[in-house]
TrEMBL record:
Residues that bind 5-phospho-alpha-D-ribose 1-diphosphate: R78, R103, D130, P131, M132, L133, A134, T135, G136, G137, T138, D202
Xref: Pfam families: UPRTase (PF14681)
Xref: NCBIfam families: PRK00129.1 (NF001097), upp (TIGR01091)
The protein's name in its UniProt record: Uracil phosphoribosyltransferase
EC number: 2.4.2.9
Keywords in alphabetical order: Allosteric enzyme, Glycosyltransferase, GTP-binding, Magnesium, Nucleotide-binding, Transferase
Matches recorded under CDD domains: PRTases_typeI
Chemical reaction(s) catalysed: UMP + diphosphate = 5-phospho-alpha-D-ribose 1-diphosphate + uracil
Molecular function terms from GO: GTP binding; magnesium ion binding; uracil phosphoribosyltransferase activity
One Gene Ontology biological process: UMP salvage
Membership in a protein family: Belongs to the UPRTase family.
Length: 212
């Protein structure tokens, strides 16, 4: 597993505003969108391309386009939905699959309540988006869904990760696939409720409100 931590003053600035508990949902959503765009630039560095011949107004030239099969972007609902538009803006030819997963806050196990993924992901580059990697349980399960469908090239885009979750992910992935994790920051630790410290709280609640 490869880890890339975005090291950029704009990322650091926007992340600080995002962490602030005084930042309300409308601004929070906007910042998530902006941060994803910055992370997506790095996350798509290895996206497969092919030569593409075009004519400019004055000459024919061989350019570049994103190759087939089209990349697949998979937001993990709910919070990952806040990152979808930013990803597809940079990857307009991508298809979108969906995973609905919720961490059981007592057992910390990830429960899957929705799964709309293509059956065969052989040869597809997949981009999983979820703002938070805490214990890693959710992303381990999500990556499993992709690997079991034949995907071998998976990029995870998160805003924050805990060191504990990264370790769990690394062990779970092993050599089953080429998994890259792109994050805005790796935080200090998890607290006794498995929340990321200093973190930003519950990303889904801050984006969309408390539902239960
Ligand atoms: O690494 P883990 O310990 O598994 O925790 C991380 C998960 O928790 C959050 O989702 P949550 O379960 O709160 O669902 P939500 O997006 O609907 O709020 C977050 O968006 C991740 O999916
Ligand atoms: O800190 C955390 C941990 C899990 N899920 C979140 O939204 N935030
Ligand atoms: Mg939540």
């Amino acid at each position: 597993m490869r880890l890339h931590v975005a090291d950029h003053p704009l990322v650091a600035h926007k992340l600080t505003v995002l962490r602030n508990k005084e930042t309300a949902s409308p601004t929070f959503r906007l910042l998530v969108d902006e941060l994803v765009t910055l992370l997506a630039y790095e996350a798509t560095r290895e996206v497969a391309t092919e030569p593409h011949t075009i004519s400019t107004p004055v000459a024919e030239t061989i350019g570049t386009r994103i190759a087939d099969p089209r990349p697949l972007v998979v937001p993990i609902l709910r919070a990952g939905l806040g990152m979808l538009d930013g990803m597809t803006r940079l990857l307009p030819t991508a298809e979108v699959g969906f995973l609905g997963m919720q961490r059981n806050e007592e057992t910390l196990e990830a429960v899957t309540y929705a799964n709309r993924l293509p059956d065969d992901l052989t040869g597809r580059q997949c981009f999983l988006v979820d703002p938070m990697l805490a214990t890693g349980g959710t992303l381990v399960a999500a990556i499993d869904f992709l690997l079991k469908r034949g995907a071998r090239d998976v990029t995870v885009v998160c805003l924050l990760a805990a060191p504990e979750g990264l370790e769990v992910l690394e062990k779970a992935v092993g050599d089953r696939g080429d998994v890259k994790v792109v994050v805005a920051a790796v935080d200090e630790r998890l607290d006794e409720n498995a929340y990321i410290i200093p973190g930003l709280g519950d990303a889904g609640d801050r984006l969309y409100g408390v539902v239960d």
